Amino acid sequence: MKxxxxxxxxxxxxxxxxxxxxxxxxxxxxxxxxxSPVDEADIEQTEAFKQWxxxxxxxxxxxxxPETCDHPNEAILQDGPYLDNTTVPCTEEVEHRVKRIxxxxxxxxxxxxxxxxAREAGIERVDIDFFEKAATF
Length: 137
What we know:
single chain; 69% helix
């Protein structure tokens, strides 16, 4: 007899819980129905925010990974050493000097600055004199 009471109590408890869940779902549905419809201004603000996020992420990625995924042709790469992670050719002396910079993020900043200056100046190959001038901040 005790097992039947226990089973009956458990069944009653489950039915009560299901009733509470059903009531909660009904109240959520009512709240969703009462919600104001989305107007055009909200849609425009949402799109503007999406565009801002896209532009921001794009800018940050360009700052973190300035080189594109396009790789230069093999024939071009075989004409000497290049500044790390760039397509700017340099002399072996410059390559050795860059490797002596002990802090990786500082090394990357220096390389990017020198590469940028070399592109702006139209330098075909970075030599040690240009590197020393361009690497100063």
